[in-house]
Amino acid sequence: ADSGDAELELSAVRHQPEGLEQLLAQTKFTKTELQSLYRGFKNECPSGLVDEETFKLIYSQFFPQGDASTYAHFLFDAFDADRNGALCFQDFVIGLSVLLRGTVQQKLKWAFDLYDINKDGYITKEEMLEIMKSIYDMMGRCTHPPPRDSAPAEHVELFFQKMDRNGDGVVTFEEFLETCQKDKDIMSSMQIFENAI
């Protein structure tokens, strides 16, 4: 019985992320959830690191009808908090914790950072258009009827009409937060992920 216990303990250690206590403090996941996420992460990425190309490959499997590479690039940047060009388990699980269990304000900050491509604290129409085009590319041929070529630009115009409160051509986090919190559709879409894990 002793050797069985030792084997079980070894297996638990192998499937335990480094800095587990720290991750428990930094995320809203339980120890069991973190171990389970870590197992999945290590299965997909035995090296423990995901570079952008691998991330794109994994992500594009979810959208076979379209081209997800550009959107996956933006998403990768949003997860790569320390900007070192690779996602470690910690980057991944901290981002996931915000998306799945964060407060509304944390989720909105994460979304804002995704749209703020150059990370200068503002969303410009150009940045928003790049993201919108990448989303339309990713959705590909699975939308019926297929979107018009002008659809991403129209989407951006509507976004800015709603968000750019002072009409200065850029959206600050404060404008983004205020508008999103007043918009019932946006708020209900934020709740969708609540019970995903």
From TrEMBL:
CDD domains: EFh. GO terms for cellular component: nucleus; voltage-gated potassium channel complex. One of its GO terms (molecular function) is calcium ion binding. Residues 67-102, 103-138, 151-186 form the EF-hand domain. Keywords: Calcium, Lipoprotein, Metal-binding, Myristate, Repeat. One of its GO terms (biological process) is regulation of potassium ion transmembrane transport. Pfam families: EF-hand_5, EF-hand_7. Signal peptide: none annotated. It comes from the Eukaryota. Belongs to the recoverin family. This is CSEN protein.
